[in-house]
Amino acid sequence: MKRNNFKNLLFVIIIISAVNVVSYSAEKEGITWLLKPDFQWVGNFSEGLAVFALNGKYGFINRDGKVVIKPKFEKAFDFSNGTASVADGKCGLIDRNGDYIIKPVHQYYLYFHEGLASAVKDGKFGFIDLKGDFVIEPQFDSAGEFWDGMARVKKTSNGKYAYINRDGKVVTDYIYETADYFNEGLAPVQLEKNGKYGYINKEGKMIIPVQFERAIYFVEGIAAVKKGDKWGYINKTGNFLIQPQFDEGRSFSEGLSPAKKGKFYGYINKSGEFVIKPQFHYVNGFSEGLAAVLDESTGKWGFIDRKGNMVIKPQFSQANGFHEGAASVMKLYWGMILNTYPAVKQENGAIEAGLLVGTLKSVTSGEILVDGSDIASSVKMWDKLCVYSGDRVIILRATFPMMTVVKCKVISGSSSDIKPGMKVYRYRG
Fold this sequence. Notes:
The protein is mainly β.
């Protein structure tokens, strides 16, 4: 065996068998590594597992830094609903043990969202469930994911998009040149090539007339739009809450939105005021109380809190946001750092951002009940919620919304860490 091949094999054995990557503190760096930066790629955690790449193959690591699914796939994607899309020659779906639920027989990746994924049969797109059965028969020339119970589909007869619901019913005409995702009941659409954007509801009615050069879907009741050559923010009636004045605007997250004025990015509140002045070369949205920012002077990424304090100094060549208590970052190679920002400060930020949705009513190992005064209108099926418990953040997924309560299940953390009476917030990871 050649020396280089032997070294590669030894490296794989060490990574896979030896508890793989143990947390250690890097005091000089101001961070705590969950995974040392030794990987070709590390994704963010989703339902307690994260994708990683080693020697050109993809596997999954858990929150203890242990390899639970060995790197054997050509490509792999985040877990959702207890499953993950992978490619091994062709594309299939695996469970948390790495066993196939849907065998690798599909031509395209199975992007499951809200329990369904588009798949191809005889050259046409339809939608399959988590068992691999077609629940919406193949009939479309292309299809996107379900968001807010709606999916965009296309027929090449006129090259236009329409929307379908989860029953497979086409609920709008094929008239849209561009069709974005639905969120909070509305979707931005473009009727003509190089034309302007407006917003439709789930019946296809134009609720906010076509008038914008660009438009982003609604988050936290607000959407960023471009009017003329400037960006502003509107409410769901189409009225400007923040007048167009920015060179770039994005979605709100945890009550703050990245916005650009001149050369630099900062963060604004919902009154349009810069609470963190423009000073960064590039930025990401807030997640778990922190946001990744690109420092102009060093050319490196670090993390700031909601006050603009640099709590993790710039030192990464790339950085993703925090998800489920950790963020994937790159130095020479990819690794993962823990979120040591106090949970109490994260909760204070969630309160400031108006993300409170209700209170834990009951907690069992199999089911969580959350109630709130207006919870039926604010929480939908598949939404992510969270509870702050001590120094931990427990993440829930809404599985069955009702009028006064929402049934949930824990997808990250342990139900033993939460109890009735605790506050529940919308999760923006």
